[in-house]
Amino acid sequence: MATKSKVELAEFLTHQYLCESLTIKEVEILLDYTELVQFRKNETIADIGEVGEALYFVVKGEVALYYDDGGQENEVGRMTEGELMGEMSFFDRKPRSARMRAKSDDTRVLLLSRAKYKRIRVEHPYIAVNLLEHAVISLDHLFRRVSNDVAGFSQYIHGTGIKR
Fold this sequence. Notes:
By secondary structure, the protein is of the alpha+beta class. Helix content is 43%, strand content 27%. It contains five helices and eight strands. The chain has helices spanning 3-13, 24-33, 87-92, 114-123, 125-157, and strands at 35-39, 44-46, 54-60, 62-69, 72-80, 84-85, 99-102, 107-113. The strands form two sheets. The protein has a four-stranded antiparallel sheet with strand order 1-8-3-6. Strand 4 and strand 5 (72-80) form a beta hairpin. Helix 1 (3-13) crosses helix 2 and helix 4 (114-123) packs across helix 5 (125-157). The radius of gyration is 17 Å and the shape is globular.
């Protein structure tokens, strides 16, 4: 990673929840374990059925999540700058249930491979704990969004109206 790019990424990350309790030196260490990957619009980042061998942190652009319903692809969510993706399959080692696809040109993500994650857990446990905490919060946000969607849909179907 070029020095200028690394400095810009470190600056960006210091303003993200993932790194809010890390020092600038710890953010730079985290960057040493990651790879900045760029995707074009509609390019697949990770696909359904793959076991997650990496975590992804959106640095620039937007990523859509798709579910395949018998050959019909349905968008089920969007991830934007500052959000973590791929944590479910990464940690439970089960096949992905959603496809991640870049929705904008020049979408950039930081990729943390499983091998690098294993190293950072041993070499920098405080940074690894921050990653785990961010993954838990990311999953919590996902669960809450889905719960709200299901509740709203249920109210719509059963005719109880949407409570405001």
